Amino acid sequence: MQKMIQLEPGKFYHLYTRGNNKETLFRHPDNYHYFLQLYRKYVAPYADTFAYCLLPNHVHFLVRVKEENALKLKYKIEDNKSLVSINRQLGHLLNAYAKAINLKYNRVGRLFQHRFGRKEITSEAYFTRLAFYIHFNPQHHGLIDNFSDWDFSSYHSILAKGKTALQRDEVLEWFGGRDEYISFHHENAADFASIASLVEEDEL
């Protein structure tokens, strides 16, 4: 695993982790929903989310750590009080989920192989390719014939009209619009290997 870097306010990151020894993390659809519920509780208040995908034994998120000043205003944190650590919140998410799964399935021991890995996203090109990479992962791993049919990714939420906690408008803006977002995903499906080579070795 790569050297752990600090998550800094205002920066974009690819976050990822997997089951210990590639163990299954999500055994039932309810498990996926519960993990996302915990994510909304522990992480979403401190990071804007642009894309995600949960697969049976690993997860991906594309996030931007919220600016400290914005957090102070929203949560009325005084300047002389420390802000909640996003790294600690990610740890709370994994710990809470692992405890719930251990209890539910009468298992013991470590569920996740490591803490969330992370890589900073530094360009628009990398942002769009990473969003595609995250959404295409279920098809890449042979879990489904068409990535857009996977229930546990943000692909359709970006296209939907209903309420979402995702940064939908910003994602579509990065791609150049709704039609461009759809086209990019489907046109690059045949060239996944070249995009995967840019990001895949950073993780898992």
SSE topology sketch:
Elements: E1 12-18, H1 29-42, E2 47-55, E3 58-65, H2 68-75, H3 86-104, E4 117-121, H4 124-140, H5 155-159, H6 168-175, H7 178-187, H8 192-199
Antiparallel strand pairs: 1-3, 1-4, 2-3
Helix pairs in contact: 1-3, 4-8, 6-7
Write the CATH fold name.
Alpha-Beta Plaits
Share of helical residues: 40-55%
Give the low-pLDDT segments.
Answer: none
CATH architectural name? 2-Layer Sandwich
Side-by-side strand order of the widest sheet: 2-3-1-4
Q: Considering the protein shown, what is the CATH homologous superfamily?
A: Transposase IS200-like
How many beta-strand segments? 4
Question: What portion of the residues fall into strands of 2 or more residues?
Answer: 5-15%
Can you describe this structure?
InterPro entries: Transposase_17 (IPR002686), Transposase_17_sf (IPR036515). This is Transposase IS200-like domain-containing protein. The protein is α+β, with helices and mostly antiparallel strands and 204 residues long. The chain has a single domain, classed as Alpha-Beta Plaits (2-Layer Sandwich), CATH 3.30.70. Helix content is 44%, strand content 14%. It contains 8 helices and 4 strands; from the N terminus they run βαββααβααααα. Strands 2-3-1-4 form a 4-stranded antiparallel beta sheet. The model has no long low-confidence stretch (mean pLDDT 88).
What structural keywords apply?
single chain; 204 residues; alpha+beta; Alpha-Beta Plaits; 4-stranded antiparallel beta sheet; 8 helices; Transposase_17; transposase activity; DNA binding
